[in-house]
Automatic annotation (TrEMBL):
UniProt keyword annotation of DNA-binding present: no
Tagged with keyword Secreted: no
Family the UniProt entry places it in: Belongs to the AB hydrolase superfamily.
Residue stretches making up the Peptidase S9 prolyl oligopeptidase catalytic domain: 73-279
Molecular function GO labels: hydrolase activity
Protein name (database record): Alpha/beta fold hydrolase
Transmembrane segments annotated in the record for this chain: none
Pfam families noted in UniProt: Peptidase_S9
Entry keyword set: Hydrolase
Top-level division of the source organism's lineage: Bacteria
InterPro entries registered for this protein in UniProt: AB_hydrolase_fold (IPR029058), FrsA_esterase (IPR050261), Peptidase_S9_cat (IPR001375)
Organism of this sequence: Streptomyces akebiae
Amino acid sequence: MARPHTGSDLRLGAVLARAAAYTSHAVTYESDGLTISGIMNIPEGEGPFPALVLAHGYIDPAVYTTGRGLAREQDLLAREGYVVLHTDSRNHAGSDDDPDNDVNLRLGYTEDVIGAALALRDSGRPEIDGDRIGLLGRSMGGGVVYNTLVVAPGLFDAAVVFAPVSSRPAENIDHFQRPDGDPVVAEIEAAHGTPASNPAFWREISPLTYVDRVTEPLLIHHGTADTTCPLVWSERTTADFEAAGKDVRLIKYSGEGHTFGPQWPTSMRRTLAFFDEHLR
């Protein structure tokens, strides 16, 4: 929040696929001095089209491949007339490495999403309407969305999250990393202290501390049977947004798990209606 962020030099590379409704390109862009890779779907027809930035969930960087994690969303949203930029977070696929990212609670992923929006705005490409940009994230990417809304209010026009992680970083560490004996936990606590020894840091690293800064409407999708990211996390986040007077809506999907199966089409119809309302 305290420092400026940059995003520029959006470059289209090889054509990865051609569909009747869109063409998929490999892309790179600059984000705070790093080169970030990704995939961008550009609709057929006359633009400019509104754009969406997609932030993927956690996939081990050792097995992650470019554009992985939100393939069905990339396809559907491009078919509906959106330029879709799916970012490969730093340390993933063809993106540059940031060796301090994990110790710094992966805040670099937030920088890369901000950089993506700035690169879209700066691209000068006739297909892209840089004044109409939305943000979508799932799971870990949902946490990236929360961070982005408080770090760069006004950069996006609307945001959607699916099955997001907790908006309290210490809770994510306790849920995902500590039980598995992740050695990064010790590095994080050596650098920043524990919630008990340095409560100020852990309070200031949560986007909920700054929810008053949020200006964008937010839509949250969460299944009641999600055992990866408990529904209560989204309920608490929604309550904090509502208490701050923010435009937030939580939709619960009875019996739906973390990855969204039978009710995914319904959730996407609602997502499209939401983006159409705020970006068209």
